[in-house]
Structures are given as C-alpha cells and as structure tokens.
Amino acid sequence: MAERDPFKNPFPAEDADRRQIWEMLVPRDIDAFVAADWAAVQGDFIEAGFTGISGNHQPDPQGFTLAFPTLAAYRDVWLEQAQGFGAQKAAGAFAGDPRQGIYAATRLEEIEITGDAALVRKKFDGRLALADGGFDRMNWQTLYICRRDAGRWKIAGFVGYLPHIKE
Predict the structure, then answer these.
(1) pTM for the whole thing?
(2) Which of 17, 64, 113, 128 is the most buried (most CB within 10 A)?
(3) Are 90 and 82 contacting, i.e. CB atoms less than 8 angstroms apart?
(4) Contact by Cβ (8 Å): 35, 117
C-alpha cells in the first residue's frame, strides 16, 4: 500500500464538492493557522447562526460546552491559539517544520453530503516534534457542519475537541 501524501486532496477530480470542502478544511485552515492569518479563512464561515461546541476532549457529551456561541467568540480563541503557536515557532520550540507535522497528523476522508448540507469528519492523530526532544501530541477530532452558500461550501458550525478513537 502506498504511503498517504498528507498534502494531496484524497477526493477524485469529479467529486468537486468534497474536493472543495477538503481544500477549505485542510490546506487553507492549516496554512492560515500556522500564519495566524484569520483573514485567509474568514470567508469560509457562515456568521449568522454559527455555533461551536467543544467536547473538551471528553468522551461523555455531559462534559461538552457551548464554547463558541458566535463566530466572533471562535475567531478570538482561534487567533489566540494561532498567535501562541506562532510564538512557540518563533522561539524555536519545534524541531523542524511544525506545518509538516500538522499536515501529517490531519486526516479528512469522510464527508457526508445531503443536498446543500455536509457533515465532515476531520481527525488529528500525530506528534509535533519539539526542539527539546519531546513532542506535542495531536489527538482529537472535529465534526464540521458545512452548508453550500452562494455556490460555495462554508462552515456553519462544529463540534470539536472530541476524543479521537482509532479504528
């Protein structure tokens, strides 16, 4: 079996919807996060009615919280996390390119589409090597709710920071 190229869209050319969703949620999302560039992804969201739920890495939904009741609330936390990541990178905390590690840890291969709505499963399972010989563990998953808006797929909400259970 050939090794997976984490930078290659896994969906065939004739599956334009899934390809578009993958491009939005993998390269555009990762590259914007690494650059702490919210403007690069801002147009990928439907602001009206946006809701983000955090699973808080808990297996029991009783531990989930309405962490992001608005897109602005999510944006603020996203920017804080991205800027913190950028500060770690600038300080030389990572061994090698952490962007490569994020891509390698990311899998988005399951997209259920019904009409103009999609349920997308994005999983993270990997390690970012640290300069001190340790690592940051990436092990969670996110369920995105996407909608086709003016002919383009966008994120309407998500349930994230769920435990990742390997198959």
Answers:
(1) 0.94
(2) 128
(3) no
(4) no
